[in-house]
Structures are given as C-alpha cells and as structure tokens.
C-alpha cells in the first residue's frame, strides 16, 4: 500500500467515524426529546367481534427509556397509565379520547388494548400493543390517532388446497443407516398430555416483556420403542402475514405469537413443515440431550404453485435460505439430509439440503469445544451408507435414477466456500435408491390456528375447524414438549440437558420465528468450522421432474 493511499484511506475512515458519531448523537437526541406535556389521544375500535359484547375495555400506556435496547434496565417502564372506556362494548365500533402527560425522557411508547382476552387467538386488532418511537417527526406532530380494526385470524387458504400443496412438496429425508432416532409422531402422547409449570431461566426475555416467571411444559413417558409411524406436520399461509410486535418501532422481544393476521398480497404462499423426533441426543454424547425435538423448514411457493425458495432452520439459526433450484429435488419433493452427531452421538437432528459434509459447532467456549468437539455429520445419498423416509406418493420406479448434484456440466464455484465444502466440483451422480427405502411419511397433519380449534368458522373458506381429538390439546398448548423444559448442566453425569422444543406452529423461540417470515434472500449459517450454505448453484434443469 502506497503512503498516499494510506493517508487517503485514513482520512476517509476518520471522516466516516466522525459522521457516524454525529448521526448517532443526533439520533439519540431526537429519541429523548420531550414533546409538549399533554398529548391528545384518539383511539378507535372497529369491526369488534360479537364475543366482546358487554366487555369493559381499557387502554394501557407504557413509556420506556431505551435508547440502547440491550441495556439491562431498558425494559422497565418509566411511566404506566391506564384509561378505561366509559361503557361496556355494545356495538361493532367504539372510541375513546383523552389527554396524557408524557415523561420528560422516553424513547418508546406502547399502546395496548386490554380486556379482549375472549377473542385472543381468534380475532386480531392489529399490532397490540401499537408502538410509537419518540423521534423528531413525532415531536413536530404529537397527536396520536390510531384505529384498532379486528380481523379474523382464520386461514384464508382452503384446507383442500393446503393439503395438496403440503403433499406436493413433502420431503425425501436421508439418514445415516445407523441413525437411532428416526422421526415419529406426537399423537401417540395424547393420553399422557398434562401441562406442568417450570421456572423460566433468568435470561428469558419474557421476564422483561411480560413479567412472566414461569412457563409450561408437558412431560412424556418413554415411548420411543413403540408407535414409530412417521407423521409430517404442516401449515400453509399467504406469504404476506404479520405478527404483532414485529413493527420496526417495537422494542425487541415483544413479538406476540397469538396475535397475527393474513393478507393475500401477491398470492405467494409459505408452506411450513415440522418433523417430530422423540429424542434429541447430541451433537455429542456430552451435550444438548433432551426429550422431544421439532425441526422445521419452509418453502416459498408462487400463487400458481411453483417452488421459488427454501428456508431451513436449526440450532436457533437460519441454516439456509436459497433458490429452490440450488438444491436437489425429485418431482418437487426436496431431498433433505438429517445429521448425526460425532463421538458416537445420534445427533441433534438438524436438516440440510446437502449431504456428505460436516460442520463443527461451537459448544459455548474453547474449553467445551475441546472437551466435547460437537459436529453435525450429514449423510451421503448412497445405498450402502444411508436410508430414506419417503412421501407416500413416490413409487420405487421414481427412485431408479435420482439426480444428486447440480446437473450443470461446468457448475460455477460458490463464492466463499473452499473445495472441501463445495459439492459443485463433484460430477453429478444418478443413484438407484430403491434399496435405500426405510419407511414412508404415513400421514400429513395440518396445524390448525390454536384459537379456532374445534369451533365454527367465521371467514374460513371451508366453514369449519375440525381437528382430530388426539391433536386438539397440542394445537392449543403454549409451552415446551418434553420433560426437559430448561437447560441443565449435570457435571456428575458429564451431560448437558438442553431444552425440549417449544410447541408449533408459532413458537416463542428464535428459530421458529424464521418459519413465519417468507424465505426471501440468500442466507446461510457458518459455525466453528464449515457452513450450511449452497454446495452448488443450479438452474432450471437442476430440479428433477
């Protein structure tokens, strides 16, 4: 590097830093600027459900001073106020007006309608709470007008169409031959369903956002040797879906998975799938052992039913979000690989779109990395080493020549991947997979919106919400599925027990949030060594018809 170039670079860098500090300072000043003391509120309720007739509703205001959302005391309100509607609800519209004094310093205001518990999970009033940030634009016009319009949370897509799409894109699952715990079903636990309470970990965000100190879980008996039939759980929705608490103005962690609504948008749809395992053992014998496991992936489908993107999650990350043409599929069924662990572990069941590679995982710190050395070890698509669980609608004839690889003779290398991680250097193979079949996905189960289970429909195009009685408890349950509801390091056993999974479909953990957002942009996760990103780049010829 020449001296002139160095000087120019350093000057540019100094200018950038000064500009950033100036902008940051201006932004913070804007955040804490106090508006006039008394601010008028005009709040309206529209399309109020008849179930709320006779209910008395109130409005809760909470002011936060939170210029840096990671601050320890950020989530303690600096001021709370409540205003009650003057009369019980008696029509489909109502309104309340009042004036409120604001604190001198605040950054975020939440306005929440309370007293609507009867319709929670059935009708959404939109973002509740509704968030406002104390910015310069608000200071200039401190007049708050907000309409809370209730909409049905029923699915807008007919059941028959949901089922057709779920069948059309159900996965071909690839496992190591010696994989011990293959996917089964949760219905077998129906007779043992009993909710229990556990103490939330101190770092759990719900302690801050909801004041919640306990959570719910269900402890299952060990039935791993019986009723092994594989079921696949799914939910199909329009891609333009919204969850309360995801506004850009909202403080992080206030996402409300029971308050969501659907819009048709451009007609694109998302199919979310969940695969149930009775047990999670890995990624090593030392750690992350727990009862129950729900692994998920999602597909973005065009309005005319063509696959556009795939998103896979695991280990509380987006493992992969990429074009559907960058993975192998057979008749629209994506070929997905389930990892074993290392050091004799059966594995944590993460799912990848590629086989024959490993990812070394972080165990938390250098010492744990050294002691446990956790890996995800993905199987190859090979008759001698792997087995398959297939959708019911694939025949043995379909498996005589399964394409593995991009199919492009000169496939370009994927940027930022070394050759050990990049399958694009290998020639495309065609595998006779008939001898690999271990089992079938015997049943696809639609996950019903929890608030509508077993009830007569309002807007639903099918006019009903019939649910298998064995599943109704699971669909309504908010909590963890399994007898390990929180992490537990047992030094005497040399075991780390992880958390059993949060219930689908709208979990409160980070990982499941990703299946509610549309697969949308190229993303992949890299860990201690290796990554889950594309191993080849395909084109229109890559999916096998």
Main beta sheet: 12 strands, mixed
What is the count of structural domains?
2
Tally of separate helices: 7
Described by the principal axes of the CA atoms, the overall outline is globular
Mean of pLDDT: 87
Account of the protein in words:
Residues 1-26 form the signal peptide. Residues 519-530 have a biased composition (Basic and acidic residues). This is Lipoprotein. The chain has 545 residues and is α+β, with helices and mostly antiparallel strands. The chain has two domains: 38-152, Immunoglobulin-like; 159-342 and 374-406 and 427-491 and 498-508, no CATH class. 13% of the residues lie in helices and 32% in strands. The chain is built from seven helices and 32 strands. It has helices at residues 3-32, 136-140, 159-168, 206-209, 366-372, 469-476, 510-516; strands spanning 38-46, 58-64, 79-84, 94-101, 108-114, 123-124, 130-133, 144-149, 151-152, 172-176, 195-199, 214-218, 230-238, 241-244, 256-262, 269-281, 289-301, 307-314, 317-323, 329-330, 333-338, 351-352, 358-360, 375-377, 386-391, 402-404, 429-431, 437-446, 480-481, 488-490, 495-497, 523-524. Strands 10, 13, 16, 17, 18, 19, 20, 21, 22, 25, 28 and 32 form a twelve-stranded mixed beta sheet that branches. The longest helix is centred in the first third of the chain and has 30 residues, at 3-32. It is globular. The N and C termini lie far apart (53 Å). The relative contact order is 0.14.
């Amino acid at each position: 590097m020449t001296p002139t170039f160095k000087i120019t670079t350093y000057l540019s860098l100094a200018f950038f830093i000064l500009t950033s500090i100036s902008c940051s300072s201006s932004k913070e000043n804007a955040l804490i600027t106090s508006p006039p003391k008394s601010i008028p509120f005009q709040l309206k309720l529209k399309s109020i459900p008849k179930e709320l007739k006779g209910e008395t509703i109130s409005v809760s205001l909470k002011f936060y001073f939170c210029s840096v959302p990671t601050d320890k005391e950020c989530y303690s309100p600096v001021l709370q106020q409540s205003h009650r509607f003057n009369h019980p609800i008696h029509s489909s519209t109502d309104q309340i007006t009042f004036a409120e004094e604001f604190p001198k310093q605040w950054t975020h205001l939440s306005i929440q309608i309370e007293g609507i518990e009867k319709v929670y999970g059935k009708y959404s009033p939109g973002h509740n709470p509704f968030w406002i940030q104390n910015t310069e634009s608000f200071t200039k016009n401190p007049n708050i007008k907000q309409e809370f319009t209730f909409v049905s949370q029923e699915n807008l897509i007919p059941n028959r169409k949901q089922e057709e799409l779920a069948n059309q894109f159900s996965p071909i699952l690839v496992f190591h031959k010696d994989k011990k715990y293959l996917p089964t079903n949760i219905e077998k636990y129906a007779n043992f369903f009993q909710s229990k309470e556990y103490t939330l970990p101190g770092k759990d965000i719900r302690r801050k956002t909801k004041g919640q100190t306990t959570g719910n879980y269900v402890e299952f008996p060990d039935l791993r040797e019986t009723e092994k039939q594989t079921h696949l759980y799914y939910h199909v929705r329009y891609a333009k879906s919204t969850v309360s608490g995801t506004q850009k103005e909202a403080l992080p962690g206030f996402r409300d998975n029971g308050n969501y609504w659907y819009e048709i948008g451009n007609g694109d749809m998302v199919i979310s799938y969940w695969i149930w395992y009775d047990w999670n053992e890995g990624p090593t014998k030392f750690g992350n052992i727990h009862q129950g496991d729900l692994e998920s992936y999602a597909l973005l489908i065009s309005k005319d039913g063509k696959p556009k993107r795939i998103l896979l999650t695991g280990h509380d990350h987006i493992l992969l979000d990429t074009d559907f043409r960058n993975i192998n599929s057979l008749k629209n069924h994506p070929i997905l690989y389930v990892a074993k662990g290392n050091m004799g572990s059966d594995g944590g069941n993460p799912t990848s779109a590629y086989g024959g590679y490993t990812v070394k995982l972080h165990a938390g710190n250098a010492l744990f990395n050294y002691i446990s050395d956790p890996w995800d070890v993905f199987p190859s698509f090979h008759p001698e080493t792997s087995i398959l669980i297939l959708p019911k609608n694939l025949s043995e004839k379909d498996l005589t020549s399964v394409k593995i690889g991009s199919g492009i003779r000169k496939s370009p290398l994927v940027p930022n991947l070394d050759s050990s991680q990049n399958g694009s250097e290998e020639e495309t193979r065609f595998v006779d997979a008939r001898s690999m079949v271990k089992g079938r996905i015997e049943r696809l189960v639609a996950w019903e919106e929890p608030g509508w289970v077993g009830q007569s429909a309002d807007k639903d195009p099918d006019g009903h919400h019939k649910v298998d009685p064995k599943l109704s408890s699971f669909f309504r349950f908010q909590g963890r599925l399994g007898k390990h509801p929180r992490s537990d390091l047992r030094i005497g056993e040399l075991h780390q027990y992880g958390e059993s999974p949060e219930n689908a479909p709208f979990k409160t953990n980070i990982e499941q949030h990703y299946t509610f957002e549309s697969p949308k942009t190229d993303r992949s996760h890299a860990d201690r060594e290796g990554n889950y990103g594309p191993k080849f780049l395909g084109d229109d010829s890559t999916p096998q018809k």
